[in-house]
UniProtKB/TrEMBL annotation:
Top-rank lineage group of the source organism: Bacteria
Native organism: Niabella soli DSM 19437
Coiled coil: none
Pfam families: ABC_tran
Protein name: ABC transporter
Keywords attached to this entry: ATP-binding, Nucleotide-binding
MF annotations from Gene Ontology: ATP binding; ATP hydrolysis activity
Amino acid sequence: MTNEVVIKTDKLTKRFGDFTAVDEVTFEVYAGEIFGFLGANGAGKTTAMKMLCGLSMPTSGTATIAGYDIYMQTEAIKKNIGYMSQKFSLYEDLTVMENINFFGGIYGLSDKQLKIKSQELIEMLGLKSQAKKVVASLPLGWKQKLAFSVAVLHEPKIVFLDEPTGGVDPVTRRQFWDLIYSAAGRGITIFVTTHYMDEAEYCNRISMMVDGVIKALDTPANLQQHYSATSMDDVFYALARGAKRKSD
């Protein structure tokens, strides 16, 4: 992790009619950092991520991603990021290798680069015997690991992961995080949303959202110390109780 800021937001807001999904969130993320964006389902995590990826226009506020403005330079942003949706983001009716080649072409890799990268990816994931099988035939855990590997195939500056480990078993979740650590070690910034509080322990820093508002932002250790908590679940419950008292 370095001191270079690659994500910067200032009072970023998204409203749908009278409903405010994301309410004036302000934070910075550094190059090579694993930044957790935590909160319960419906807290506004996915909405915020879509704005940062250039997939949804903010109602107000500002943000830059890899130095590019989210209002004026959305295409430049898309070329410098990877993205993995919580709803599996590869084509299930294509083979493993066809998916790799397809997305590698979209990311602008040359034929030579794609040949090298695809072989490295297949070997790293242990999918050599599965390379010609359609993705639909793979177990969910393998699909998720493949989707992540394809999202960073072009070595983007930032990869956005939206609930990437949802529905997979604990062992597969740990293996998935090994892939995240490897990418971060290569200098890729990881921005990950999750509602699994134990995954906060794997992040350099985390922000915790409650009802569209960032209620806390710090390292997991500092947050636990501040709230005299023994787990991130305890921290989140303390924040949620505080938010409820405030609204009352």
